[in-house]
Each structure stands twice: as structure tokens, then as C-alpha cells.
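Render Chemotaxis methyl-accepting receptor HlyB-like 4HB MCP domain-containing protein in 3D.
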Amino acid sequence: MKRRKFKALIIIGVLLLMLYGKNLLERRSFRSISSTFTEVYNDRLVVEGYIFQISERLFQIQKLIDHCNLDYDYSKVIKEISDNEKAILGIIAEFEATNLTEQEAVYLTDFKKIIEKDLNINSYELLYTDSSGVNREQVKIYDQKITRARQDLDSLSKIQLEEGEKLISKAKILINRSQIWAQFEVALLIILVVVMFLFLFRKSEKNQGMI
């Protein structure tokens, strides 16, 4: 009888350890799921918002360079372009603080270089003079730089979509794994109940037989 009791206790102990190990794995899985969704928000959705804000600022710069609005007062155009560029660089600094992929870092570095150097306009005479009007050749060069900057933004936006899909796929795998572990836990609990029932039932029968 002592031998059976010992075996039953060992089985119960092993089952309890398995349940404990399963709970540890499940906690780790939930932490991973939480981390994944946090990454989707902070490094993908928020970044997509950054890209949109930068794109809007870049559009304003191009409008000012191209003199799209003939009724506009262009006396402060250089300052306005500079203010938009400073705002863009501020957003880029927040962008750089996120978890960048290698591709993102490349495109973001190229974009930052365009804003800091290629579109750094110090004199309005580069764009316009009273004698010649709009300097179309120089404006064309700036437009080409802006087009390249937009291509970098499009590539960055595409990366957000691709990386977001990867993270969501990872979250789905983790959730499916958690569901499997939940079923495993139910099976262990059933086995544990059966073992304890048989142990108690047999013990009760033996006690009755002794009486």
C-alpha cells in the first residue's frame, strides 16, 4: 500500500510541476504578445503618423519653392521653409528613437541629408529675382530633391506595412500557442483529478475491506 501511495504522490507531484511549468511558459507568452502589440503601436502606427506629418511639411516646402500661390507674400519664404525643415528634423529625431530596421535607417539617413543639405536654402535670390522672376532651373533642382525625399518616405511607409504584418503574424502564432497550452492544462487537470480520485477511491475501498 505504501508503494502505491508513493507512486500516486510522485504522479501528482509531476503533474503539479508540469502545471507550474506551463503557467511559467504562458506568462512568458503573454508578455511576448503584449510586447508585440506595443511594438506595433509605438514603432509602426506612431511612425506612420510621423511619416504623414513629414509629408505634409514637405508639401508645404514644395509649394513655397514652386511659387504655387501667386497672391502669396513671399517676403518671408526662406524663414517659412526653414521653419518647416526644423519641424521635419524634430519629427525625424522622434522617428530615430524608435526601433529602426536596417532599411529604415538607410532611407531615414538619406531623407535627413536631403532636408539638412540639399534643401537648405539660404537666399531667396536662388528662387526668385525681380529682374528674372522665378529661377526655374534652380527650382527644378529642388523639386528633384523633393521627389527623392518623397521616394524615401514612400519606402519608409511601405516598411511600416511590411513590419506591421510580420508583428501581427507573430502575435497570431503566440496566441495560437497559448490556446494549445490552455488545452494542455485542461488535460493535465483531468489526469490529476483522475489520479487523485483513484488514489482516494482505492484507499477508501481498502479501509472498508479491513473493517
